[in-house]
Structures
1.
Amino acid sequence: MDITSIKIFDTTLRDGEQTPGVCLEANEKLEIAQALARLNVDIIEAGFPVASPGDFAAVSMVAARIKGPTIAALARANKKDIDVARQALEKAERARIHTFIATSDIHLEHKLKMSRLQVLAQAQESVRYAKQFVQDVEFSAEDASRSDWDFLCQIYSAVIAAGATTINVPDTVGYTTPAEFGALIKYLRENVTNIDKAVISVHCHDDLGMAVANSLAAVANGATQVECTINGLGERAGNAALEELVMALNTRREYYRAATNIDTRQIYRSSRLVSTLTGVVIPPNKAVVGDNAFAHESGIHQHGVLNNSLTYEIMQPESIGISRNAIVLGKHSGRHAFEERLKHLGYDLESQVINNLFSQFKELADRKKMVFDRDIEALVNVKKTQTAEWYRLDYHTVVSSNKTVATASVQLTSGEKMIEEASCGDGPVDAIFKAIEKAVGFEVGLKDYQLKAVTAGEDALGEATVWVEREDRIFSGRGLSTDVIEASAKAYLNAINKMLAACELPTDGQGEEDN
Ligand code: KIV
Ligand code: ZN
């Protein structure tokens, strides 16, 4: 049986970062890029360098540090965008410029105010320009699924003639259906004159919940690159989810006669990392990576799975990196056992980081009878979100009841200085946030707050996420503790520390690197 190789083009760092409320720092983008490299994706779209200096810096950092996958940068079809993209990609081992222009009449008339002939000329000229700097040029016809099919054939033929090595067919607004999109890919394969010289790629959005189905229909009709994001993050309803596409191709290999290069055992871990860093929670019933994806509730199902897992499981949790028998550590577990467990979970960390995590693990084990793999993963992921610490929480006290106003007092350390403050508020979390705000001495701008349990049980770890806003930028912070008020305070301070690292604010504290 001939198996076609499907390239995975991950755009978590570009389209995924356009998810409402998501704003990743450069070091967080690098963490995600490292996870994508471990997953063995073929292409990482690292960002849109012309969009902001922060985007430029993140693309340059990913290009310089990540070896293996091709690093792509997005550029509109104009010289300035392409120049900035190629500068950001300068240090990449393998670089791709991804340039795009809209092709649907709706976009031409209402957004670009250009004729089809003008768009055709600009697309061709931009690809020719990009080709002077890199061999690998991708061209996207934005809103392709609502464009005239013959115009698409014309423009794709022209850009391939100008040097495009990949032509991408985006369903920008998530409008198409599997049968229609499959037919479009077939039509392009049969009518773009020089299609044998380029890879056909698809990029589907999930507005009608069909992004993955549409991408798979495209694969069945000859597309050999799919664009996707971890956990399906992205603009509006998101993009096609990498984990769903990959596991569908893996599980139905014989049907699709296609395979990817992805190391599927990295899927679960990458999904959790992206969820922690972006603050976008994974719904429990999410396909492949949701908490319930492998849970069998009904007695009939449990009985079947116990006899033979094939009865109700079409894929095994181990195949995405979930161990069925998650080993439990406790307060008597030593550093060696902890380090071994980290290694088993796939973390290759520096000894100083392990030491730091081990003391956090010990604190946790004192409060929690059993420490599960999920707890350890949460400690590692939250550690990755920590930045230089202007302020550190020394202690807090909160008094709250249903009859009195909640009050909180905190002591923070900032460099050599200790600051104590107290406040009351609408409930314990509000009171502690207000006490912290008084202690740091400026208005923090809380936007949102979320709390979830990492595992089940009354002594479960609570993971708090906080979003704060300053100068039109959103900063997210995370905190972990078995005490949810402490988790919330830590998350708030983490967001404040990130804000202080990025903006000029009134503080006399010193940022201290925390390893
Ligand atoms: O959705 C879209 O059309 C895009 C393009 C830039 C590829 O993200
Ligand atoms: Zn998109």
2.
Amino acid sequence: MTVLVVGSVALDSVETPFGKAENVIGGSGTFFSASASHLSPVQLVGVVGDDYPMDQLEPLRKRGVDMAGLEQAKGESFRWRGRYRHDLNSAETLETRLGVFSHFSPKIPPQFRDAPFVFLANIDPRLQLDVLRQVQRPRLVACDTMNFWIESRRPDIVELIKHVDLITLNDGEARQLTDCSNLLKAARWIMERGPRMVIIKKGEHGAFLFKEKSIFFAPAYPLEDVFDPTGAGDSFAGGFMGYLARSGDLSDASFRRAVVYGSAMGSFAVEKFSVQRLLELTPTDITSRVADFRKLVAFEEEQAT
Ligand code: AMP
């Protein structure tokens, strides 16, 4: 089954303790597509300016990402500049230039409107809501957001979450949105306002899936070298939604596996700058990393004597 994603398609400039990259392809929609396309067909909706290096999106098209919904408008592309210091868990945003995103009004192509899985990646929540008005009863709608939008558009996010099944946030964003420092309480606060499920990601400390009556936790893959954390969250979402779309199974067991696929794809994204590592992955790389997660957490309970 297909996943429709609406998100930013950006030019990122990133500084980490290990190096710098200037104007490389990035954005929530781009990372999501690069990740999810390993598992299911992807339809991408977004906008770029006339300065965007379209040839660099070719590998995504070759991976089967349908770009019929990617507009090229007059003006400057969305640009994000960020820095990570030794704590690679949190990005410091140095600059966000919305460019063509500030006048963007997403138009979902007619052939995308019945997509069974919809991911509203991190963009202006007003645009996320606009997309929901154009799609027909998806089986699962999930969304993401970030501090930038929680600060400037909180009421729109509270409206948006009334209409989604699931939201993904990192721990800082969950606390900021809900004003609850305890993550269980933060998840409860969100579930009382719409979503049946909440994923709270904690960077190198793993991710929680909260549901009404259960909690699942997956660790992050222990990597010796985290090169650039940019896009880890979007790649997590791509692995998560891509797995669900591939299996078509919305059981509890399938959601748990999806969290592990998300964690596996997030762990690949951080091994190189931009989408480089995601683009070179093979199906065996993915299945063997998923298998490593199982080994990481498997243990036997002591037998009662
Ligand atoms: P993450 O997965 O959270 O590391 O997301 C990183 C990506 O988010 C980068 O490639 C940025 O281009 C993109 N990004 C940063 N700020 C924003 C924003 N305010 N709206 C949409 N996308 C953003």
3.
Amino acid sequence: MAHDPRTGHGVLDETRQKTREPTRYHVTLLNDDYTTMEFVVQVLESVFDKGPAEAHGIMMQVHTQGRGRCGTYTHEIAETKVATTRALAKREGFPLQAVLEEE
Ligand code: TYC
């Protein structure tokens, strides 16, 4: 803080509040033995806006490595995509799980 040379009193000279980027979250898909590959590709296309080739690539990564990233979003959007994935999977009777990971 600066000081007025006459009074010695503090003078507020910070005019701009510090800004902070919102924390972003990865949405990660987990492998299981029951969800069909076709359904996972459909979810990647419809919920995560992937094209067919990228969706297939991510699905195979999850299938072979156990997990794979579908995208990185603000907290609210990431939560919504996780919830939508769970709801679609539940409707079809698949145990497919998506989780949030802080960036
Ligand atoms: N492992 C599944 C199968 O063999 C396919 C699968 C891929 C399931 C990705 C979940 O997130 C997943 N049918």
4.
Amino acid sequence: MTNQPWSPDSWRALPADQQPDWPDPAAVEATLAELRALPPLVFAGEARQLRRALADVAAGRGFLLHVGDCAESFRDLSAPRIRDNLKIMLQMATVLTYGAALPVVKLARAAGQFAKPRSNPTEFVDGVELPSFRGHLVNDDLPDPAARVPDPSRMVQAYHQSTARLNLLRAFTKGGFADLTQVHLWNQEFVARSAEGRRYEGIAHGIDDALRFMAACGIDLEREHQLHEVDLYTSHEGLVLPYEESLCRRDSLTGEWYDCSAHLLWIGERTRDPARAHVEFLSGVQNPIASKIGPTTSVDDLVALCDRLDPERDPGRLTLIARLGVEKVDTLLPPLLRAVRDAGHPVVWACDPMHGNGIVTTGGIKTRRFDDVMGELRGFFAACRGEGVWPGGVHLEFTGDNVTECVGGVEPVAESDLGNHYSSLVDPRLNARQSLDVAFQVAELLKPKGSRRPS
Ligand code: PEP
Ligand code: CO
């Protein structure tokens, strides 16, 4: 913590991890001046609305679905791609809402997820050592030393890319595509042909029947706007602090500061030290915020972090995303849950079953096992139930594409399939069918005991 009051740039007085080594600091400042003059990407009122929705989740009256790409790509700004990711998100939300009879808060890792923390400053590509790729907001992933030099103009490009993505997401979610009568259309063909897709069709027919039943009862479905549009929120890791600082805006209604680059910002496993710059920055913005919680987190670290980020003990302010790994979740999570509860922080607890379960095949390919993902989720639910804490959400890296990046699933991706369609810029993602399968299994885990709802 600094001795000065918080301001969007008070983080500059503290050590900041994972920042790019910009070759030309003057060019960075010029870029930031440009960003400061641009309109906000999201509005304070929307961030407050998400905060209220997360307060309901913290109280056990909802569930958080936090999903998207590991790293968005500047080269992949196409309408079909944005639409297909939205389709699988809507399908998962439908499965969870229907199966667990709970409102689902839809939060995308999208429209700004362009910066990546790295464990090492360099990486090997085909045997050649290069500066690490840090996300398209910073440098290019091409295996060429010149492409890896941090370029501040990429921050402006990230802003414009985010606007274009958000614009389309807003159009899709408010303009008819997310209408519940379209529930069948979200089933992409390659998904519909699979066992998971057929199971989804069963739910979609159930929804058709329910809508017909309500209409027959005299309910004017046209007037029920919840049936016709969806609230979709955006999020990304708040990693490159000058970028985030330059998009802070003071809300004209309340006078408070919001980071208007996304509705929710999170800090990662590598930047959650309460004494350093990322926590300082997030502590002062009024958005709902989140932190990843990895296996080295001690009870004291966690309580100190909660005290810094949620001093008012305000429901909806803070989400903790546990990513402990399938082997460790059973032993590490219960004391963390107890400590946060006993310290009186009404957080949302979510489970990221991806980042603690990375493996490398003998062929050197980064992957994750579907069974480990499900194993950590089951461990998370069991630990929460054991401590009387609401298992509030799931955080996944996925894509609407038919990729082969994670092994396993109902019609399993084999290790030998990994080379077939592997397009992630950083971490392996669940494909659309694997994601739908997770949603079905999580809906089962969430179902109230004794429920007879079909799925
Ligand atoms: C991520 O979510 O992409 C990530 C890097 O996670 P973590 O900080 O948990 O490693
Ligand atoms: Co990742």
